[in-house]
Design goal:
Distance between the termini: 50 Å
Structural class: alpha+beta
CATH architecture: 2-Layer Sandwich
CATH topology: Pantoate--beta-alanine Ligase, Chain: A,domain 2
Strand content: 5-15%
Largest sheet: 3 strands, antiparallel
Number of helices: 3
Strand order of the largest sheet: 1-2-3
Shape: rod-shaped
Helix content: 40-55%
Radius of gyration: 23 Å
CATH class: Alpha Beta
Number of strands: 3
Order of helices and strands: HHHEEE
């Protein structure tokens, strides 16, 4: 009786693993991209929620013309995760009267740089299929 595996048996195992990997790796990459889009949408939602809580306290949205909300939102939302997000750039625009706002997230990294997610004060997404973002080859 022999011990060990033959070269043919080892090659077959390696080939089967390689075939399985060709199916698994693209699915994993798609899941990572979907997670990044969901993260951007979640961060926009956090900023919008902070804007609404600010309005509940002050009867107006913060003046978006200054572009600096760090001190304004510190009581309403934790900004560390949003500030350290290397995949998206977030901007808030609005009127000086504090009646409306739009939050935009621009994708800055990866093969999908330039993708934009946007929400207004009414909770309406400008890109209604943002979570249905199609990845090439899908």
């Amino acid at each position: 009786m022999r011990k060990g595996f033959t070269l043919i048996e080892l090659l077959i195992v390696v080939i089967v693993i390689a075939i399985l990997a060709t199916f698994a790796i693209p699915q994993y990459m798609k899941a990572v991209e979907r997670a990044k889009v969901s993260k951007g949408a979640h961060h926009i939602g956090l900023i919008a929620q902070a804007m609404k809580m600010y309005r509940a306290d002050t009867d107006e949205y913060p003046d978006a013309s200054t572009g600096d909300f760090g001190d304004t939102f510190v009581d309403y939302v934790e900004l560390n995760e949003i500030d350290n997000d290397s995949d998206w750039d977030y901007t808030v625009t609005g009127d000086a009267n504090g009646e409306t706002f739009t939050i935009t997230a621009d994708r800055t990294a990866g093969p999908y740089a330039g993708q934009v997610l946007e929400i207004n004060e009414m909770g309406e997404w400008d890109n209604s299929d943002h979570l249905l973002f199609r990845i090439p080859g899908e």
